[in-house]
Amino acid sequence: MKKLLAVCLIALSLGIAGCGNSNNATDDSGQESSKKEEVRFKGDYIVDADYVKDHLDDIILIDARGEDAAKKGTVKEAVPMTWQYLSDVENGVSGDENWGLVLEPKKLAERLGEKGIAKEKEVVLFASAQEGWGDDGRIAWELLAAGYKDVKMVDGGFSALKDAGVKTNKGGTELKPVDVEIDSINQDHMIKTDELKADYDDYKVVDVREDKEYDGEVLYGEAKGGHLPGAIHVKYTDLFNKNGTLKSNDQLTKLFEDAGLSKDDKIVTYCTAGIRSAYTQLVMDMCGFKNVKNYDGSFYRWAKVEDVEKQ
């Protein structure tokens, strides 16, 4: 009887051990790991914080949050710069025909040269991830249109850089001015109001603003509230995980496709001033949606000159 009891106890203990092992992976050292490896977003215009940490001596790093934010804390080697510095915001007010659009080539070259942003260098930008407006994406989108070949954004933004142990200070740095030549602005991924209006039915129009903006609240001095006719709503903030990193390529592709978008569609993204929508255009491009244009006049301009819809 005692012998039979011992055999049963041994069998029971083996069964419990087997159940435990089915829920945990074991690495080469014999230690158990209960978490799957995180699937990170990958794309031509994205790097992680560790990449920046390892390549600080070889890149130009831009803090796209601007000088005011940098004074409170930024990466030591970062050049503070706002999207407004590279856009036509000095003539007129939001909603005017050219307000917020990319500067003409000569003026844009002067501005970038003053900041030391050489075209032959790798340029990496960061901002505040989902807590901001995608300022790094707007500047990256503009640099690519201006002929810069090696442009990246930091996945997770400034928070990710701090977590990676990149040295910070207050104010960042200044680079020596350089000569920059820009012959023309590539229009492949941008669209203006007249063109959008003329070919509106050819595009699927995507509004990346927050719910209350889409539904009709006026929050930032827009001429009126609402959204472009028939606009599909895919929020900029839905691109990110809670920690500020981008969701995986598969997750984001599903997000876009569930909203009714196909990789074969001609798509226009917009927001309030073409900032969040520029970031979204780059993300969609990296997910295989190659026919996407950012409307840099965006809702500021459309609401002033065209009809809108409300929920």
TrEMBL record:
Gene Ontology molecular-function annotations: thiosulfate-cyanide sulfurtransferase activity
SUPFAM superfamilies membership: Rhodanese/Cell cycle control phosphatase (SSF52821)
SMART domains linked to this entry: RHOD
Reactions listed under catalytic activity: thiosulfate + hydrogen cyanide = thiocyanate + sulfite + 2 H(+)
Coiled coil feature spans: none
CDD domains for the chain: TST_Repeat_2 (cd01449)
Listed InterPro entries: Rhodanese-like_dom (IPR001763), Rhodanese-like_dom_sf (IPR036873), Thiosulfate_sulfurtransferase (IPR051126)
Catalytic class of the enzyme: transferase
Domain named Rhodanese: residues: 55-170, 199-310
E.C. numbers: 2.8.1.1
Signal peptide location: 1-19
Annotated keywords: Repeat, Signal
Protein name, as recorded: thiosulfate sulfurtransferase
Organism whose genome encodes this protein: Enterococcus devriesei
